[in-house]
């Protein structure tokens, strides 16, 4: 499998499973049958950010969408986007797109 296909597979995997609180570079590398170190380097080369940064961005974007377009409370949304607690969505994350999700 080519490097590009693996990077694309990784991005798709993260986007589809970002709501899993156990999602990590290690668990993804096990699913794709490659080392976490290799996958981390590949990911950084392909996206320009670390796996953790990308996952954070995907989760925050999903949370913002849910906060904007649903009637769910922040605790429920936190669980829906992969957090075990709602604290990361209550201002504990760095601002994305200029504001904290709580301010939406």
Task: Output the CATH class name.
Answer: Mainly Alpha
What is the average per-residue confidence, as pLDDT, rounded to a whole number? 81
Uncertain ranges: none
- Please report the total strand number as a whole number: 0
CATH architecture descriptor text: Orthogonal Bundle
DSSP helical segment count? 5
Question: What's the number of domains?
Answer: 1
Q: Spell out the helices and strands N to C.
A: HHHHH
The CATH superfamily name is: Homeodomain-like
Sequence-ordered SSE layout with sheet pairings:
Elements: H1 3-17, H2 25-32, H3 36-47, H4 51-69, H5 74-80
Helix pairs in contact: 1-3
Describe what you observe in this structure.
The chain has helices at residues 3-17, 25-32, 36-47, 51-69, 74-80. By secondary structure, it is mainly α. It has a single domain, classed as Arc Repressor Mutant, subunit A (Orthogonal Bundle). α1 (3-17) packs across α3. The longest helix has 19 residues, at 51-69. The mean pLDDT is 81.
């Amino acid at each position: 499998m080519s490097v590009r296909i693996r990077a694309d597979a990784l991005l798709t995997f993260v986007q589809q499973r970002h709501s899993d609180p156990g999602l990590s570079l290690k668990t993804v590398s096990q699913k794709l049958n490659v080392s976490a170190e290799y996958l981390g380097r590949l990911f950084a080369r392909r996206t320009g950010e670390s796996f953790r940064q990308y996952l954070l961005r995907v989760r925050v974007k999903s949370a913002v969408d849910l906060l904007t377009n649903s009637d769910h409370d922040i605790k429920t949304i936190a669980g829906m986007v992969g957090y075990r607690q709602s604290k990361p969505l209550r201002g504990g994350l760095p601002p994305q797109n200029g504001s904290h999700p709580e301010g939406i």
